Structures are given as C-alpha cells and as structure tokens.
Amino acid sequence: MAGYDIVDYFTDPSLVEDPLPYFEHLRALGPVTRLPHHGVVAVTGYEEASELWRRPEAFSSCISVTGPFPGIPEAVEGDDANDVIERHRAGLPMGEYLITQDPPTHDALRGLLMRLLTPRRLQESEDAIVRLADRQLDCVLDRPSFEVQGEFAQPYALLVIAELLGVPEDEHPTFTHQLGERDPLAFLSDTFSAYVEDRRRAPRDDVLTSLATATYPDGTVPEVLDVVRTATFLFAAGQDTTARLITAALRILGDDHALQDRLRAEPERIPDFVEEVLRLDGPVKTVSRLARVTTSLGGVDIPAGTTVAVFPHAANRDPERFEAPGELRLDRPNAKEHLAFGRGIHACPGGPLARVEARIALERLLARTSSIDISEAEHGPPGARRYRYVPTYILRGITALHLEVTL
Q1: Contact 203, 209 (CB under 8 A)
Q2: Which residue has the higher pLDDT, 211 or 49?
Q3: Which of 110, 181, 339, 366 has the most CB within a 10 Å radius?
Q4: Average pLDDT in the 255-265 region?
Q5: Please, which residues have CB within 8 angstroms of residue 278's CB and are 6 or more apart in sequence?
C-alpha cells in the first residue's frame, strides 16, 4: 500500500485501531528496515528482534518506554554513543527505573526484583490469587453485564500485586481508592517509602520486611529509593499490562462460544490459550532501543545514536517462525517462543506472574459462567464490532470491553 511508505507510525492515529497491515507492509520490505520519519529503524523479524534484545552491549534500553520522543537531546558524533547516553540518562522519561537501565545498574536492580518474583513465591500465592479473582468476580457477576477492564481486570491485577508485595489486606481498599484518585507513581512512592523505612526499623515476619531488607547480589544494601522504585515499577507496569492481557483474552472468548465450551471442558488448555493471546494480541506494541555503537542488524547498518523500534506483534507473526501465524491454535508446539515478554536480560520479570494471573482469572470466570458474550449494545454485532483502542504507539489494548454473562 503506497500510503504506508510515507505514514508516520508514531503520530498517525489511523494506525492505532489496527496496525497489523502496516506491520505486514514493513515485513515485505525486510525484517529490518528504515522508516521515513524520526530516523527510526524498525524490526519486524523474529530472529532479528531476538538478536537485538540479546545484545545490550550494542543497544541501550534508555529509551525503551518512549522511543524517538523526546530522544537524546544531543547529536551523536562518531561510532560510540555511550558517553552521550550517560550524560542524559537521568533526564529521560523513567530514566531512574529498571526498564530503562543498562548493565551493571540494571543487573543489580533486576536481582533485587527477582528475589520477590521467585517460582516458590508465585506458587505460595496461588490460593490467595484465586480468592482475589473470586472476590472481584463477586462484584461484577451479580448483574447481567459488566465492563472488564475497569471493573474486573485492573482492580484484580492491582490487588494481586499488593498481595505479592505483602501489602496488609486491610489496606487493599485504600490502595484501590488512592490509585484512582492520585498520580499512581507518586502515591506508590510515598506508600512504599513508609513501608520500607518502617520494616527496616522494626522487621517483621512478612513479605514487606523481605523487600525492605533484601540486598543486591553482591551483598550491599540498596538505598530506600532503589527498593521503592523496584516495587512501584512492578505495581505500575504489572497491573496495567496484565489487565490488558485479560481483556484481550475475553474479547476473543466473547466471540467464540466453541472455544469457551472447550476451555470449560478442558481447563488444562487455558495456559495454551493465554500463550496464543500473548502472541497474537499482547499488550506491548513497540519496544525501543538506542544504538550504543555503530553496528548492524539483519544486514542493515545502524549508526550509533539510532532509535531502533521492535514491533512484537509483527515478530510474533513471522511466518519463518510460526506456522499459520495469524491463527489461534491451542496445540501450537512452539507457542511459548513468542516475544510478548521480550528476550534477554530485559525479558519481562513479571511475565510468570502475568501468566498466573490471566490463567486464574479465566479459570474462575469460565467456571462461574455458562456463557460470555460481547455486548452488542456497546460494541455492535458480530463481524462489525466497535472498539476504541488506547491512542499510543507503545501499548496495544481496547479502552473498554463490555460483556454480558449467563451464570
């Protein structure tokens, strides 16, 4: 399509609702290709995306959450951008958080976070997560219809992370209310600073004490602010993306009664369904890196200081990696090889938690209903659905999903 040759992916609202044809257009140009705007190089190939994520020495995460805007406020001269990156890192959006860090700082902060998200901790939390799912479903299944994103998925995901981090249960309602009324990061920063300082003064036998007294892998004690940023990052990023994953899954199920019935009869296939939803409709649409040095990727030369944008939805539909990539197949043998959670040192640390949350949410909703339908009043009839998508090039997700349920 000729229009795709000149369209600005990062600013054109026409690509928000359905960017997939645009991604296929880029794929036809090659797995790595230069875009006509902002000096960006786009990656649509599976192998090339995997390679980029595994080369942190060549590609910095400093712009991972923003891409070309605002970019580095200084031109890069020569073949090495590392000094320029470090001069401006602190001033970049979320420049102090794990997601934008590079080694060695990244390794220390990630090590701190992974002490909380251990397989044992997730297993120990499963019963509590089931209770939280049922508690939130109790709030919406007492009527024939509800809105998934705001009334079920987001409150549920928020409370799961509160539970995982050890926030006292009697304070959960405060979290729900305050996060809706205040700047989330500011509220969480204030709250967890108080928790960490309290537990360091007076340790208890709880998860918050484990968080407050955790050390870096080398045994040193983190600053309170580093611990707080680790916790708030998990809260802010984890609840939003998990809620979008649950909503995407229910949008698919609401249009497919045969699939609903199969998953009710075979709940052991729900994890397979979650993996295919992640592959086809994961919540992250664009992940950006900045070339630290002059290098190449997929045969394309990339000068130091270049913004490189990976499109996971394109890589996850690469026909070189996935047979019939546009189809949802519960028996896909390599479904877990998708890139919805990235790869390498920046692979999403909350991925295992998101899988558990989504699986339990779907298990409980399917077990407690006999039918789930998309509201025609809100979204139109089958084959002509109407959805509004978040107006951003970074995330993928509908703003609201109204369901009608039969118990």
Answers
A1: yes
A2: 49
A3: 339
A4: 96
A5: 245, 338, 340, 341
